Amino acid sequence: MTPRVPVVVVGAGPTGMTAATLLAQHGVECLVLDRWESIYPQPRAVHLDDETYRILARLGLREEFAAISWPCHGLRLIDPSMRVLAEFQRGAEAGRHGYPEANMFDQPELERLLRTNLKRHATVTLRCNTEVTTVAQDGPGPVRVDFTDRDSGTRGSVLADYVLGCDGANSLVRDAIGATMHDLRFEQRWLVVDVATEADLREWEGVHQVCDPNRAATYMRVGRHRYRWEFRLRQGETADDYRDIGHLHPLLAPWTGDIPVEALEIVRIAEYTFRARLADRWRDRRLFLLGDAAHLTPPFIGQGLCAGLRDAANLAWKLAGVLDGSLPQHALDSYQAERKPHAHAMIGLAKLIGTAMTRGGKPGNVLRRLVVPLLARMPRLRRIVLDSETPALHRSGLVVRPRLRRTLAGRLCPNAALDDGRRLDEIVAGRFAVITASPASPAQHAEAERRGGLCIAAPAGTDLHHWLRRGHAQAVVVRPDGTVLRAGRDLTELCATLPRFGAFVRGDRP
């Protein structure tokens, strides 16, 4: 008899591991299948913002990620002669969510943290070196997942109530859904170079972006002794042209200066094609797409991996609620309705930044030299460049907002510090919550608790109170992923509209 599990996650990268861990925190049994024997050892993604750092903290990795990450101090725009056009500085201190707003890291180190952390959850099984060969659903019943052990050749099958396709740009699950990746008309070939060195480069601790159609480049420090460069490849060039350090060093020299070549350890040289693509459908009945299976984002704003973790955080609690019966099936319709427009907006922003920095020929360089320094002096523009807040989610069954009036619904509630020194997420711990500018009555507290949630006061003078006032709200209902479901002024009504969400079973707290 074919075994059956509630959820199969295809792919054990950061998105798949995050989804599985969040589901495990709600007591959901998961089987994670990954075709590779172990973690891919080469660095890929290097940036997470404070919104996605917050997701890692919910997994229980707040301190662990802090130990392997490196705060980024902003963005410096440079012309082809390495003259600074503008510098947008941010501090390394915590932002609205309690974490630095830009964080650099080494992806293999993050993946090791995620896999080690997953072992704390007995409801999740990770099977590596296991190739998924078929994902098939027949009508409304469970999904059949066929797989092969790549060592022994042994074949197996499992039935799943739901399957999450976290299997990357060449997704098998996407093929099973019949989804198409729409080309959003951005494609550039880049050389990516990762270097380790004990030498001090003595460079400013932010991202350096060389704005040059002839040889656009990016430099960033990603760890105590780790650095990354990205150079746009010219017509006819390939990564093989730069595997010899003698050919590569002239590209690095503006930053490495007189540091001997022998002091630079080349960790990786690779060619990447930066693309902008978005799947037309993210779901077919019991199949879902997450991460690169659903979207590909150019790297200019560092949001590729962030988008995948947001997918996992958005879907996991909804799936847990449907599985335990505390949320209706149609709650899952909100996943694509919320995440697809958000991902599309972030891809559009990355395209805009990439185009502004890398195109326009010589006239573009002249224009940047004249305009960028002037724009950088505008306080409003500086705030926009440095603000890590991403757009509000669109209306859905779980984001209730008027069409013509600005509201906090769909926005991420700040992970603000409370009176006892703890932050909001530590108190809420994966439940629904009502945040109120005025104290809740015993009856209102009781109603929220009866529905599996809680009420939290935001006294005058606190960050949460200011946030409510700026949003013209007396109170808001906040979902388990931190997103505002609805905002209003009638606290009793808001408490009565809390979904009866299932119990949070995690034994530990963030």
UniProtKB/TrEMBL annotation:
Protein name per its UniProtKB record: Bifunctional 3-(3-hydroxy-phenyl)propionate/3-hydroxycinnamic acid hydroxylase
Organism listed in the record: Lentzea tibetensis
GO molecular function, one term: FAD binding
Domain of life: Bacteria
Domain FAD-binding: 5-347
Cross-referenced Gene3D superfamilies: 3.30.70.2450, 3.40.30.120, FAD/NAD(P)-binding domain
Alphabetical UniProt keywords: Oxidoreductase
GO biological process: 3-(3-hydroxy)phenylpropionate catabolic process
